[in-house]
Amino acid sequence: MEKETYNILLNKLRTRLTKQWTKFSEPISPEERLLITLRYFASGNSFKALSYYFLRGPTSNRRIVHETSQVIWELLQPEYMPIPTTNKWIEVENRFYDLWNLPNCIGAVDGKHIMIQCPPRSGSAYYNYKGYYSIVLQGVVDADSMFICIDIGELGRNSDGRVLKESSFGNALAHGNLNLPEPSPLPGEEINFPFYYVGDEAYALTKNFMKPYTRNQLTNERRMLIIVFHVVANQWSVHSEC
């Protein structure tokens, strides 16, 4: 992170990260709190390892990262990842049509397993089909692989379809609370068609969710649509790993 970017972020968070002085101790400065958190994000080191860099105890580092992360989300989410409006969905659809030739498409959905250590007394709840323990990051991205919505923390053993169903985004989609545009005709057609999201075979086919044909139903014409789905999914995967 460049120094200028760090200062911009610090200025946004400073008020919430400033702690009160007491007669017994000097509070940890907002600058150090943000540095500890960014170091943890960038390196993935343990809190004990961070203690050697900042000369703070592991317990203090854990508390600082937790508190600062919460502040970052609460202050930046409304600005950088607000709940999309109807006009925003229409902008996303226009970009999908221009870039991927997918009319009425307003987002691509997929899940990413984040490796973790097995939590105590959790059994196999976090053990995924890939053979390790994880939580799931589910993302909805636009045509340029930029996040629109995210949901983090589902058990690693759950399928993508289950994660979507249990997420706040999935619940809002099921109950019609996402401010989606009214159905409109596809290019060259007259019948109204609903706006939809795209995902892989792990998801259920619904009114507002499209998925590719299963492999045993493929024809040469259908393969072209499969290629588009996989290109969009690969773009999302590269973006999430970065």
Describe, in plain words, how this protein is organized in 3D.
The protein starts with a helix and ends with a helix. The chain has helices at residues 3-17, 30-43, 47-54, 58-80, 86-100, 160-166, 168-174, 220-241; strands spanning 105-115, 134-141, 147-155, 184-185, 192-193, 196-198, 209-210. The chain is globular and about 75 Å long. Helices cover 46% and strands 15% of the residues. It has 8 helices and 7 strands. With 242 residues, the protein is of the alpha/beta class. Strand 2 and strand 3 form a beta hairpin. The chain has a 5-stranded mixed beta sheet with strand order 3-2-1-6-7, with helices on both faces. The chain has a two-stranded antiparallel sheet with strand order 4-5.
Summarize the topology.
Layout: H1 3-17, H2 30-43, H3 47-54, H4 58-80, H5 86-100, E1 105-115, E2 134-141, E3 147-155, H6 160-166, H7 168-174, E4 184-185, E5 192-193, E6 196-198, E7 209-210, H8 220-241
Parallel strand pairs: 1-6, 6-7
Antiparallel strand pairs: 1-2, 2-3, 4-5
Subcellular location: Nucleus
Keywords: Hydrolase, Metal-binding, Nuclease, Nucleus
InterPro entries: HARBI1-like, HARBI1_dom
**Residues in helix, %:** 40-55%
Give the amount of beta strand, in percent.
15-25%
Q: State Rg.
A: 22 Å
Mean pLDDT: 87
Question: What coarse outline follows from CA principal-axis ratios?
Answer: globular
Tell me the span between the first and last alpha carbons. Answer: 14 Å
Tally of separate helices: 8
Q: Would you tell me the structural class of the helices and strands?
A: alpha/beta
Largest sheet: 5 strands, mixed
Low-confidence segments, given as residue ranges, are none
